[in-house]
Specification:
Helix content is about 60%, strand content about 0%. With about 90 residues, the chain is mainly α.
Length: about 90
């Protein structure tokens, strides 16, 4: 996941981003709305999007607070594990 590589290489920027509260205005990551419509039968998509983005922001904040000790690949694995029942991400 390129996002985690970028965050690890630019930790100061992202710590500042969250400290200034920009995560409430702009959301990290890309959400595939077409895939979500398939997985969730096109129901409550806005809620699924918000749940995913808020969860991703929380995981990134926790990773930054811990000094980004896990590799970007490990972080991708953590995200994928939250979607174990899904064949695609």
């Amino acid at each position: 996941m390129r996002l985690f590589h970028h965050i690890k290489e630019n930790q100061l920027f992202y710590r500042t981003y969250f400290k200034l509260g920009y995560d409430n205005q702009f959301k990290l990551g890309h959400y595939d709305i077409y895939q979500a419509k398939q997985h969730f039968d096109n129901q409550y998509i806005e809620y699924h999007i918000e749940f995913f983005r808020s969860g991703l922001n929380a995981i990134v904040k926790k990773w930054l607070a811990g000094g980004c000790k896990e590799t970007p690949e490990e972080m991708e694995s953590i995200i994928r594990s939250e979607y174990q029942g899904r064949s695609e991400l």
